[in-house]
């Protein structure tokens, strides 16, 4: 049986956009706890990212009168992005991340509106440092909110995909731990072939941080006993430039 998913998602997104208009009245009728007030900021300085996010959400959902937020969150989680009121001139954006149809960690951006010119600015966030948030804020935030949110989401989903692909490969396939940077935009790992102890070195670079497909791949074979003779496997490199990491690995090396 074929199920049309696209209209359902479009409907959810339409409802989400309509909810943005309703939230202003929602803020006036239900006062959410100030999760990003000065006391919370000072208390949270020594928290790591996951602890900070947990702290924020516990504060938001603590009072029974605020449980309506959880209903809203559940309704819009499928779209990957949720907007919710915080207090007065502040709102929050929540970004879900996914891998293999499972929810992973959420990320948050808190926006503040200048009451004089009604311009939005980023008050606080929990995004990884390598995402160019200042650039996205300047380019999109006060011109196209949906574009801003979608661009942030693209960076987050691609990062999580790269990271989880490396973790999956490490846990299931690799005999040596890979070398990666914080953004997982540079990935290096070595394969020792079981049949003959030949070594294959793989170096992947992701110049586009909104993608989980590398822009550059270098694969070199070093045969046992010939350390100074490396052969580049350009045909194999193409596999990694066309597929996600685990699929390319399976194609090139099998099980």
Automatic annotation (TrEMBL):
It is found in: Chromosome, Centromere; Nucleus. The lineage of its organism: Eukaryota, Fungi, Fungi incertae sedis, Mucoromycota, Glomeromycotina. Belongs to the CENP-O/MCM21 family. Keywords: Centromere, Chromosome, Nucleus. Its main location: nucleus. This is Cenp-O kinetochore centromere component-domain-containing protein. Coiled coil: none annotated. The keyword Nucleus applies. InterPro entries: CENP-O (IPR018464). GO terms for cellular component: Mis6-Sim4 complex; nucleus. Transmembrane segments: none annotated. It comes from Rhizophagus irregularis.
